[in-house]
Amino acid sequence: MAFDPKDAVDAVRDIAVNAVEKSADIVENVTAIIKGDVAGGASGIVQSSVDIATDAVDRVKEVFTDKDDELD
Q: InterPro entries, per this entry (predicted)?
């Protein structure tokens, strides 16, 4: 299949939406660090960051391979 620019734009939008949602989680984890839960807050920040990256990679793979795992 050919590369579809609309799919790429949709993927970028989805990645941005997910990143913004996860950013709220990161802010909550920073609050936890400020309140003294350094280990829990740092762990949450790392997990949210990994989630952002994983989602981005998955969406990019979908665009270039034309596969959507959710349809399986």
A: Rv1893
